[in-house]
Amino acid sequence: MKRVILDCDPGHDDAIALFLAAGNPEIEVAAITTVGGNQSLDKVTRNALGLATLAGLDCPVAAGASRPLVAEPQTAGEIHGESGLDGVVLPSPAMSLDPRHGAQVIVDTIMSAEPGEITLVPTGPLTNIALALRLEPAIAERVAEVSLMGGGAREGNWSPVAEFNIVVDPEAADAVFSAPWPLTMVGLDATHQALLTGEVIDRIRALDTDISRFVVDLFDFFIKTNLTEQGFPDPPLHDPVALARVIDPSVTSCKRTPIHVELTGTHTRGMTVTELRPWIEEPASTSVALGLDADRLWDLIVDAIDRLGTR
Question: Which of the residues 101, 192, 238, 267 is marked catalytic?
Answer without folding.
Answer: 238
